[in-house]
Amino acid sequence: MKAKSSHFFGGLLCAFAATTAAQAATIYVDINGPGSGPWASAYQDLQAAINAANGGDEIWVADGTYLAPVISMVHGFNINKAVNIYGGFAGNETQWSQRDFVNNLTILSGDAGVVGDRSDNRTTVVRVTFTTSSNIRLDGFTIRDAWGTNAQGGAVFPSAGIVIGVGSSPTIQNCRIIANRGHPMDGAGGGLFFDGRSAAQILDTLFEDNSAGEGGAIYLDHSNQEIDAPTIERCRFIRNVAGRAGGGISMKVRRPSGLIDWTVFQSVVSLPRESGLCGRDAGTPRTMGNATTA
Asked: What pLDDT is attached to residue 190?
């Protein structure tokens, strides 16, 4: 009887897994309008596609510039569920392998006001707020033109191209995070801001021309807890600037954490001190290999 029960419940688990897999869908986004084939039902609004998605879905985004929204006074596209979002499509593909993120630039931009007037740009372009899964991926995008230069008080305030919330552990790969600005003294993480515990993976990504008070490209916070183990591999940092410390990366964590590997810091500048990598409150990478400064 026990063997039969085991087989019965095993069958239920298999059926549940198969049903879950079958429910995963591909959602299409094309700012230039619906195309042909599976793209005929494409959304033009990326946030609307994210809102419509279920956990486990893929979102394919065609080339073009998508302006970051403001949702309930909060700036940026909000990724609040376990979805995989891929840029680099032309808008006519039928297979994922057909995408070309090098030539089909898919841009998420904070320049949502008067074009070229940075004073009205979004303070953040992308926020990752889903905290119970690492099955989030942002792959093949250019994230640019966050502009948060208005400090509030003397503390460090996040203003970044991407803000990763407490407990969120996404994978960011094949992206270009460029020309994002935080306040030159009080801002943190011009390109990318980790808020609290995160085991995010940042892979094959370029950080270029970002700036903030600390962590011109990346800022890792929080000093009261360990950031689980963010991984930064095969990335390149070019002309990132910090007004105080860590032109490339600034870490404020109490325990050693993380991996930085096969990464190049090139022309990173911090005006007073520590230009490439700055660790505060005993925060240094658990492993740092093959990281070079050019």
From this structure: 83
- pLDDT digits 0-9 by tens, 211-236: 887 778 888 776 555 555 678 888 88
In single-letter form, the type of residue at position 75 comes to: H
Q: How many CB atoms lie within 10 A of CB 174?
A: 17
Count of CB atoms situated within 10 Å of the CB of 274: 19
**DSSP three-state, residue 26:** strand
Confidence of residue 145 (pLDDT cuts 50, 70, 90): very high
State both tokens at 167.
């407990």
Report which of 166, 165, 171 is spatially closest to residue 134, judged by C-alpha positions: 171
Task: Decide: 95 and 131 in contact? Cβ < 8 Å.
Answer: no
From CA 44, how far away is CA 105, in angstroms rounded? 16
pTM of the predicted structure, to 2 decimals = 0.82
- Name residue, tokens 């994978």: 171
Degrees to nearest 5, angle at CA 262 with 251 and 125: 55
Half-sphere exposure of residue 122: CA atoms within 13 angstroms, side-chain side: 27
Which residues sit opposite 71 in a β-bridge?
A: 74
Task: Classify domain 26-293 at the CATH class level.
Answer: mainly beta
Length of the chain: 294
| Of residues 162, 126, 123, 164, the one with CA closest to residue 146 | 123
Are the C-beta atoms of residues 189 and 215 closer than 8 Å to each other?
yes
On the 0-12 / 13-18 / 19+ scale of CB atoms within 10 A, 198 is buried
3-state class (DSSP) for residue 29: strand
